[in-house]
Amino acid sequence: MYDELIVVKVGTNVMTNRDKRIVRPVLGNLVRQIAQLYERNIMTILVSSGSVIAGKEVLGKAKIKDKTQKRQVYSAIGQPRMMRLYYNIFHQYGMKCAQVLPTKRDFSPGLHRDNMINCCEGLLSEGVVPIANEDDAVSVTMSMFSDNDELATLIAQLMKADKLILLTDTDGLYDGHPEDEHSKVIKKVRPQEDLDEFIEDPNKAEGEGRGGMGSKLNFAQMAAAKNITTYIANGKKENTIIDIIDGKTVGTKVSM
Question: Measuring CA to CA, which of 77, 133, 182, 229 is 20 to 30 A from 44?
Fold first, then answer.
């Protein structure tokens, strides 16, 4: 079938520029790496944000006042746009991708969970890359994931992935403020290690994504506790995923 399965999560801050527009070359670089891994019999499940931003690019400024409803509308409009972008890029590499829109109930024991596993296993067996995103059009309040870091972690656990890679717009978890020239990336973290003193997300409220470094570390440690080696690394760099698979020191590694 395949030699290795990885889950890669790409957040909004990775795929957008300062004007909050989707940067297609970033998506192209991401897909290129997934295609190269496919040639090495390594399959990827991609967890991708971006639907809300994509919806804004299409609709512009919505007249809707309610924030939850506005997010639902943007997501419903933007999700097919995101999939069209991915479809076209994967097609350039002779590959196919598929849309998977889970909600929290799909990870609870029972029929929904079994269906989720069967769907992903079927896609992977056909060489198709599943692209998962929370179904923001219908997932509200109690049915929401905290963010796509949680979704990626749950998928990695559900599918017994070998590695989980959480891509962000910094080089990993720093021992100080990322913009401080004296700060260094923490290369290795244990699942139970308390690193709250290093967590600071000053720009979290300004971005479109719900997650931040605190979320990434929390779910990375959760995955690592289940023996899934997890990385927090810079998704804007050219070869981050390939370098991680090749065993190079990249970002922050979270493992037993």
Answer: 77
